[in-house]
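Batch manifest, entry 17 of 40.
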Amino acid sequence: MFTLSPRTPQGRRIRAALVGTGAIARHSHLPAFRTLADEVEVVAAVDIDEDSVRTFCADGAVPHAYTDLDRMLAEQQPDLVGICSPPAFHREQTVAALRAGAWVWCEKPPSRSLEEFAAMEAAEGTDGGPYAAIVFQHRFGSGAEHVRSLIERQAMGRPLVAHCQTTWYRGAEYYAAPWRGTWAAEGGGPALGHGIHQMDLLVELLGPWSEVRAMAGRLVHDVETEDVSTALVRFGSGALATVVNSVVSPDETSRIRIDCERGTVELTHLYQHANENWRITPAPGVAPEELATWRDMGADVPSSHLAQLRSLLRDLRAGRRPRASGADGRTSLELVSALYKSAFTDATVKAGEIGPGDPFHAALHGGTPDRPGGWT
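Output type: structure tokens
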């Protein structure tokens, strides 16, 4: 069984490796690891492009460059592997790392389907790991933690109405990468690859959802997947939410708004949020003293890869399942899968409906990547 003892002065740093050396590894993962250099050391990087991985290692002072994941796992025996490759590789690479005894921190989207995610879960260990956590960094940070607590204990009353918005802009140059916009390589469009972050935070704040009704369209881009989707979501609490995901919106924003009985909480940002991005508006009659406690989010800890990595390393050392892994990591992918099934079938999809044997369990397009008449 793979475990690490709590850090002591006689202990060692966690050995980490990165798989995929593109922008997300260079600008998000590696800086987070470097910030925590007293706890973790990046010992290797892997990429099928030898020039890319060698440049990455030279620029980032990473000692070992590989083009073969299995060889790296055998020779370096990392404790933690960050998966920064395109979605088509997430299942295979996550399973390989887990079977080698390494914990995994996998970029979103976790996989291209619930079937693939189930294979990743099946490769995890028990009673101490290794486990695979998904990069859902918007859950972390002082603002998200504080608001989650307010809603969970109904400090502002019951949540009633919500809006979740990921309206971004991606031009033709974005889709110049041959794997983008394809079902086989990317797995889905903005609902999977972009909006999943805000949808994950929405579910984190509101709790389990119960049903989804959705539409999707390919309005601008010449791609296989959608470039816009909308959905109505009912939550177990009874709250109703609208969800909009887009990559055709020049005025880019990421936004969550939740109206509770006694107050509205709103988050507006783009790729990362801090305390200043949250706004709480009281209903008439709320005492100033109570409002002050709602608005007090404590020391400002922005949402970031760094914030999630700190939490993950604590869990790794303690040998306990981290947040955003297992069933907790699957929740948002279940919502995304339901959104696609509803859009393809023109039907309401219930929570728990998509299981083995359902075509939308195996692929987000349900085996019909272009339904008659197209998306629109």
